Amino acid sequence: MSATSPWAERATQVYDGSYARRYRAHDDEFESSEPCREFAAWLRRVCSMRTPPIDVLDLGCGTGRYFWALTGVRDLVGLDASPAMLDEARHPYKAEMIAAASVSLLQGDLLTHPFDAERFDLVYSIGVLAEHVPLDAALVANVARWLRPGGTFAFTTVHPASPSIPRTPGRRVGEWIAPLAFGQLRRSLRDHLLAQGLYADEERVRELLGRSFIVESLDRFVSEAHLHCLCVARKTSA
Fold this sequence. Notes:
Blueprint: H1 6-14, H2 17-27, H3 34-48, E1 54-59, E2 73-80, H4 83-89, E3 102-107, E4 120-125, H5 137-146, E5 147-158, H6 169-177, H7 183-193, H8 202-209, E6 213-222, E7 227-235
Parallel strand pairs: 1-2, 1-4, 2-3, 4-5
Antiparallel strand pairs: 5-7, 6-7
């Protein structure tokens, strides 16, 4: 059995039955949320770039809010640390429109859960990475291992310039100094501004994807809550 990170332990406590029911109720207001509609349209465009049938992993699937937006899917796996959220995902929003031939829901830690190498054609994550769990080199390496050559990694992050992030005096000073700094000082300031992986800007996304992925698109998007990065990257064949 894989070890459980503090992030997964926190998720099981915070995202309990009461939270999950409120979250699932919000799913039913999907059409009134322009950001939700935009995220769904983005995900459909990502799927359209793949030749069906494809095998898909939703990292941090929650209540399965976007399952219905996927197209051309053979096997869909939803992974989440919260059993309460997964209970709600068993009757997700627009369940009648889910086109996947099979859907599996797994409780597990996004940072440590084992999957077979080259298991998926698409790994996606909306509203989770660099928001509720750190986006770091280890997670990117896991995704690269899980994807088949040429597979797609599509994900959102919270940008460190998001107005949702409190502009403390320390953050303001760091934002002013970081562009002028060099070497270890700049790296330390950047790590602080990015909250050790809980935020990620375009520079950090490109750094982390490194040689394992080719960035196909990297855009900014404003939701009801945050300024996001939306990234679509393709695993290199090497």
